[in-house]
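ok so for the tutorial part 2 we go from a plain amino acid sequence to predicted structure tokens. step 1 is just haveing the sequence, like this:
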Amino acid sequence: MSLKKELNQRRRDIEKLKNQCLQTTIDGHIENGSIQYSWQRSTKAQIASDLTAAPLAKVSENVSILDKALEQCDSQLKDIAHQSSMVLAVADQSTQIRWVEASRHMQGASENVHFVQGGQWGEDVVGTNALALSLYTGKSSCVFSNEHYLDAIQDWVCYAAPIYHPSTGQVVGVVDLSTTWDQHNQLGILAAERCAQIVQGALQLQSQQILQLTCSGIAKAQYQGKTLNLSPRQFEIVCILTLCKQGMNLDQLHQALYGERKVSMGTLKAEMSQLRETLGGMLGSRPYRLLLDVHADFCELEHALDAGNIHAALRLYQGIFLARTESPFLIAWRDCIESRMSEVIFKLEDKDLLLKHLSHFPEAIDAVERLMELLPEDHPMQHTLLRFHG
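step 2 — the prediction. this is what the tokens look like for a chain of 390 residues:
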């Protein structure tokens, strides 16, 4: 059988499987990361049947570490797109395309469906696609032809691979290589993974010039490839100045850090002097402010919540922000974030995401309560969840 005939037969088999799958409800017999499960999630999202292109949104003016890395490997990725006769796109955690380059073969098709910068390709917006599937599973994926939920891209085959931050291991985006279905190649996923590695290499170089802050769970700071030995107060100062990019004078910083505690201004000045030395002088004064770029997990979490990206927010939430801080400013900020996370959880309809969240944070009472609401009263997990709730 010729390759073209094989691919046509595959399309017919997919259509038969999809029809069977969409006539059933989501249950435990379908693997969570599978195409079939994605079809059912897409159906539940009630995507408009006449949708012909992804929604477009203005790309945030905040230049992320991913954007800066893409600037470094721009020409290399463009060469791959044109040499492969594909369209190559990089999307962020919200599944919005931040960078794209299309070959002549795919340029018109990609523009028609808004596979362009600013295009929003979340599964809840356009249904099953490789970008969204890779972000959902954290694994490489291929979505072939009519495996796509949206009719407008059922002539495509797409290969995607997640991009991992080299320091934190967090998924920060996804690479997608797409072409027409009749050009399907078994090596497509490997090509997407190679592109992801190129971006990760650029991220590695970029991150050495950026202060990396991890504050969920175990607090850690890295700069120029080294872990910084910051005191708890210095860590709090860095977090405050990260959240207040405009800077603070000495009185404002003292209030934000200590509140009504009886700590002298001299003590704070000493902390600032030591911190400036640790940061290689990259700490300004009058007002006090950071003079270097910062990539902080708590800022990424806030951006995900601002964008309404529930999946990214749950991925980014790795524990309570600075659990032992006594800073009134940071406590107030943390309480707001925790409240926003609870609000997100109580609106969540995806039981698997809730279960995944609970597997990492079994003490998350809000997730327990929401899961109890979603599961039938006679579901066997209700008894287990009741023990957590109690």
